Amino acid sequence: MDLDASQHSNTRSGTTLEESRPALSWQGQITAFANLVWETYKKKPISYWIQLFLSSSAMLTAFPASSLLSRLYFADGGKSKWIISWTAVAGWPLTALFLIPVYFFGKVSPTPLTLKLLLWYIVLGFLSAADNLMFAWAYAYLPASTASLLASTSLVFSALFGYFIVKNQLNLSSINAIVLITIGAVIIALDSSSDRFPGISKTQYNLGFLWDILGSALHGLIFALSELVFMKLLGRRSFHVVLEQQVMVSFFGFVFTTIGLVINNDFNGMRLEASSFKHGGGSYSMVIIWATITFQLGILGSVAILFLSSTVLAGVLNAVRVPLTSIAAVILFHDPMSSFKIISLILTVWGFGSYIVGHSSSSSSKAP
């Protein structure tokens, strides 16, 4: 009662307690933030934070590693776009293995597979196979740093397709992100002559640029259609349901990509590729195997992040892995890093940040 009276008195005099409270110094703000972090930490058991750390680490290391291995395959003598796109889905049994303990120890049952859901999985699997093939063309002709920056435009297409297909909201932060990331891609296009590798023609570079953008657009469409499947057919986003969806889409993507490999006779060509690979057949096998494993680890990490935390954190980590991939490519492959590409990188990360802040704010406003 005394507090209410004091607040009422302050309001009549034209001020409130919030207005009269002195602004915190930067040391005070750091202390307040540290206290908030500590309180948040105490709300969850230590096992939760270990899982979140492992999932985040998997996403931040596996996806960049998969991208770098794709570029290494082509840099060291690999030629087949079908083979490197096949590695993105060949590891689907690794993801499927994680469903076994979930079913047994999580006391959940597999989601009933209706004909309509099966057809959706087949469509998404086909689109996923086409998407992986497009990105394979991009990594064949573009530096890994450039390819990863262009691939970040998938956020733009996810937002646009989400708006038209799923009726997601497009707020000012989302529009700002779309504009910034688009400008970043345009800057790379204008500076294309500075990061073209020797032996790569201008036509090949432009082709890689085009396939990267088209692959990003298709990735955004797949994301929106996957969300539509959850809304219309699945209706829930538990860990095992998201994992089932990933396994089924990857499986059908594997089927379609394998058919492409057989038709293109690339399975038989693997032995010839291995013999002419820069560091020999053993190195060739390691690149293929680890490209397969790292991509699946990245998928598992992203699914776990969505289950343990939120799409916002997944977006943050997705934004962080863009500069990580670019920096690693500069260090390992000596990718050219012009001032234009640095500006594009800054705009891309800024765009991701704008989208995440806007998405977080809208989610908070919807919370009860």
Write the layout of secondary structure elements.
Layout: H1 2-12, H2 17-20, H3 26-42, H4 46-75, H5 81-86, H6 92-97, H7 99-105, H8 115-141, H9 144-151, H10 154-166, H11 172-190, H12 202-234, H13 239-263, H14 266-276, H15 280-308, H16 311-333, H17 339-366
Keywords: Membrane, Transmembrane, Transmembrane helix, Transport
Family: Belongs to the purine permeases (TC 2.A.7.14) family.
Biased composition (Polar residues): 1-17
Gist of the model:
The protein has 368 residues and is mainly alpha-helical. Helix content is 81%, strand content 0%.
- How many beta-strand runs? 0
Strand content: under 5%
Number of domains: 1
| Uncertain residue segments | 1-21
Described by the principal axes of the CA atoms, the overall outline is globular
Helix content: over 70%
Radius of gyration (Å) = 24 Å
Output the number of helix runs: 17
Report how far apart the termini are.
27 Å
Order of helices and strands: HHHHHHHHHHHHHHHHH
Overall SS class: mainly alpha
Largest sheet entry: none
Mean pLDDT: 84
Protein name: Probable purine permease
Family: Belongs to the purine permeases (TC 2.A.7.14) family.
GO molecular function: purine nucleobase transmembrane transporter activity; purine nucleoside transmembrane transporter activity
Main location: membrane
Can you describe what's shown?
Residues 1-20 are annotated as: Disordered. GO terms for molecular function: purine nucleobase transmembrane transporter activity; purine nucleoside transmembrane transporter activity. Helices cover 81% and strands 0% of the residues. With 368 residues, it is mainly α. The protein has one domain (65-366). It is globular. The two termini are 27 Å apart. The model is unreliable at 1-21 (pLDDT under 50).
